[in-house]
Amino acid sequence: xxxxxxxxxxxxxxxxxxxxxxxxxxxxxxxxxxxxxxxxxxxxxxxxxxxxxxxxxxxxxxxxxxxxxxxxxxxxxxxxxxxxxxxxxxxxxxxxxxxxxxxxxxxxxxxxxxxxxxxxxxxxxxxxxxxxxxxxxxxxxxxxxxxxxxxxxxxxxxxxxxxxxxxxxxxxxxxxxxxxxxxxxxxxxxxxxxxxxxxxxxxxxxxxxxxxxxxxxxxxxxxxxxxxxxxxxxxxxxxxxxxxxxxxxxxxxxxxxxxxxxxxxxxxxxxxxxxxxxxxxxxxxxxxxxxxxxxxxxxxxxxxxxxxxxxxxxxxxxxxxxxxxxxxxxxxxxxxxxxxxxxxxxxxxxxxxxxxxxxxxxxxxxxxxxxxxxxxxxxxxxxxxxxxxx
Length: 390
Ligand SMILES: Cc1ncc(COP(=O)(O)O)c(C=O)c1O
Hints:
Blueprint: H1 3-10, E1 22-26, E2 29-32, E3 37-40, H2 43-46, H3 55-67, H4 78-91, E4 95-99, H5 102-121, E5 127-131, H6 140-145, H7 149-152, E6 162-165, H8 170-176, E7 181-186, E8 189-190, E9 196-197, H9 200-213, E10 216-220, E11 244-247, E12 258-262, H10 282-297, H11 300-316, E13 321-327, E14 330-335, H12 340-349, E15 352-353, E16 355-356, E17 361-364, H13 372-389
Parallel strand pairs: 3-15, 5-6, 5-7, 7-10, 10-11
Antiparallel strand pairs: 1-2, 2-3, 4-12, 8-9, 11-12, 13-14, 14-17, 16-17
Helix pairs in contact: 3-10, 4-10, 11-13
This protein binds pyridoxal-5'-phosphate.
Pyridoxal-5'-phosphate binds at residues 45, 101-103, 106, 135-137, 187, 191-192, 220, 222-223, 248.
């Protein structure tokens, strides 16, 4: 039996069929079980910041595991503190909470807002205002904050107290935010929603409304954070400072981690309010610190800017491409003839892995170490595919 067949038999059917079994990765390259090599422009969906198998996080993980693996959150351990200090210093926030995934980081953000709301306005101040098109994860709170009805309906009833407004609709936002609002949760660039950049004017309005009503402005930077968009965090590309951001995906370049960073809040979590067994585990914290170190040492934020600009220019000139949008190395390619799923299959046959982020758009979110030559290969593969389909 192939790995694909064994997986379909032994694992739950919660994911759509997976066409490939990947057995090895190195840098921006992946190999399947038949030995075929692919250029990886998915990076585990914006996770493998440094490319596959980068020695820095691998060595940090192994070394820390040998010294101290896990102690629970009953005790302090130094790697998580060092990671919190590092993240606070690159983000301007003051306090961190660690968990294991993006959904968990957003659950923490939602709970932080509700804690703050209860503290400052009583139980009625509990609402979260979110955006249409949003994706915040699959746990029940994060799922309720997510927009997509088909992802939610089979699991209703979901938690009460969530409203959604159209992206960039400032009057709708103004109508939704009030004294009952505990927090406004926004992805500054909606990733799963199609790599849609939220207008700066909308973010400014959200900041003003949160200030006016004593609500927390929360940015979900699970997909956009850690250099991907050409800055450590996407909010740093704007004039707006949120009260907290959630992180995950690229933070430890492939190891599972989530984080919530916030300004120091007297109305925030109190002892016993929130927690998770594996959050801030020493080996994972060490891998995250190593990842941040390499992003800085190798100027991968500069690389994300340079290769992102290069890809955007080159992809825009490919016949059959209607629009290229995004920031840094989080890019959507809108196709004139649609069928992004079909184009994804054809790209794979050309040896390039991308994913369809909507029916009409591809998403490119390669490792931040991608070179100009590799980017050019990807552009040529798309040109070949779209010419063949014209
Ligand atoms: C913006 C955003 N938030 C949250 C999540 C959920 O993260 P996880 O799958 O680690 O729970 C994702 C995952 O795609 C995401 O893109």
